[in-house]
Description:
The complex is a heterotrimer of chains A (about 400), B (about 90) and C (about 300). Chain B has about 90 residues and is α+β, with helices and mostly antiparallel strands.
Amino acid sequence: MPVVKALTGNESAAHGAALARPDLIAAYPITPQSSVVENLAQMLADGKLSCEMVEVESEHSAMSVIQGAALAGARTFTATSAQGLALMYEPYFRMSTLRLPMVMAVAGREMTSPETIWGGQQDTVSLREAGWIQFYVEDNQEILDTVIQGYKVAEHQGVLLPVNVCYDGFFLSHLTEGVEIPDQEQVDSFLPQYRPQHVILDPQRPMAVDPMTPGNLLMKYRRNHLEAMQTALRVIDEIDADFYRVFGRRYGGTIEEYRLEGADAVLVTIGSMTGAAREVVDLLRDQGKKVGLVKVRVLRPFPLKRIVRALRSAKAIGVVDRSVSFGWNSGALFQEVLAALGSQGMVMPAVSFIGGLGGADISNDHMLKALTTVLEVSANQAAEQETVWLD
Amino acid sequence: MTSTWISPTGDEGIYQIDTGKWRTFRPVINRDRCTNCKLCGYYCPVSSIKLSNQQQVHIDLSYCKGCAICATECPRGAIDMVREGEE
Amino acid sequence: MNLQEVFYGAEDLISPGLSACPGCAGELTMRTVMKIMGKNTILGVPPGCMAGAGVVGWNRLSGAKVPITIPLLDNTASMLAGIRRYYQSQGRNDVRVVAFAGDGATADAGFQALSGAAERGENIIYICYDNEGYMNTGFQRSGTSSKGSNTSTTPVGAMRKGKAQHKKDLPLLLAMHNAAYVATVSPAYVQDFVRKIEKAKEVTCGLAYIHVLSPCPTGWWFDPKDTIKLARLAVQTNFFPLYEYEDGRFYQTVSVKQAKPVQEFVSRLGKFKHLDQEAIADLQQWTDRRANLLQRLCAESPA
Lengths: 391, 87, 303
């Protein structure tokens, strides 16, 4: 029987990983991720988990050990944050371009400098062009469930890509919530054993992995990778639906639409800030305001079609980013949404909101300010908007 | 063959360069001096020195780059380096 | 295996046509190592001369007859540790995992990963072919280039005379990690070479580290025919002593009764052509000091 326990976000990630029966875990401590691996190490010590655990000397080696094991056929798991992810970048990029499925939990953290250890999404958002699938989740139950979903997406024969499950450092990693832990048997039936067919380092089937590849062939690999990303959009939605049938919970797949019926002003959010946005949408709806919400659950691949469909009736939108795009004087997600709309010839007033950097809170007041601003813009249809800082 | 264009793999054969064409000098064993001690084969970087069915060392020139290590190391001076094109 | 079995009997598991320079000691070493390791081996060759020469393959072709990959320059030991750990967990302990890495990938960029793997006792066989520099990218200085080396990043001119620092001593560093087995080998000392590779092959617990001084005709500027001569001279001058380390003890495996002056080795290499007597004396002193240290370390161990 599934049990409900009070779990932190990091414990939720650890339980999700353990339920996926990884063959090998390699990780290095970093705030705010550390307790993910500590929890897994304790499960191992208590005999509740059986796998290889490699206590590496750096995140670079964590990803490297995992890469080797994955090439040998293992299901793998790691977790990290910010500087650790940055140190991983070299093997991180290669994990996706080698097309090795895995799940990595990221307790999101702002990037130094200024020196910081607190929450933010700059670490993973900055790596959105490294070929990984990136989920951004809202609460602890979704962390656990998305780790399990993540493996199924990653190992899907039409996808074969690594998956990040990103959750806001401290806001979720250290927040305790009631979380339902599914049955191992249920998870086993949902997530069968992983058997790689497309690449293997095994003397019984000798091959070279990564011979020198000229550009004309390299482009074929890139094209296939891009196509797999597009396939993943469909697969993520399907697997979310499958998950619902087994576990009774679902998250909308790549995006979640919230109270969009007849909404003139729509807020687009990502990660744990969505909770505050929901409350503010409810509040304004109670006042008769036509507002709604789109939660972007998957930033990579970008769910262009679903976003466009969700926003097509809005008169104005606002996008709240917990990270910045240095070249755009706005948030990164904001530019992604604009690009999606523009690609379909849709033009509407849009406001970029930036908040919650470096562990700063995004409160209900911030969300109220944001949604009220978008409502005003939707009424007067002003075209050009300044970026609004939620500080 | 693996599923093409997913992971970059090399499993469609062995890559080999025709290094035998690099040579300007080729090693030739002087059978009068050769004692068949087989030392030359221990030092050939290309593994070009082989044994015949009669257990005699001979040089397979297919990939020999003509480095002349064999000629230098032969304790009997039984390997001559001969310019390509000459007998 | 006896020498004839290794060099004439065993299958060459590397592509016969690699674009390594004529007279390359690295190519010789790699082929020999793999003849001893055999088919049940997974090989990791990071960026460097051997990968550049095509052993990981081109296009859709492989450069070896065993499973092979090219780790990053800086993660060879950890990537291979991951492979080995998985095979161990699957009960397939017979699958050997071997690194064949240059000195740059070992002493410099890859040292952290190697140090971590050695400390954790990862059961991989790590072979470093030390040609004293980044030869594949054009003979730049590395942590193992000898002092005075004329490299493309420590060139000789009116004001500077090659590399200013002595060589980083990797095998001793690995011994100080208490690696399960550490050995220096030379392609000139074949019997010693084969015995040590076979020993490394049999290490089932912990990391085996083999360091081979790999004379490089192109980067050191000498005639390719002299590769083995120079490898031998490096040992005979004590410039590269042959020893092994096991269970906390050092053993000299090839004793040099009357060491030749280092000058005999140095004077044959173009990269040292500019060295004056003072610089050569410095190299001699460094050589003597290490030979001395090794002698004392070996004296602590039973014969």
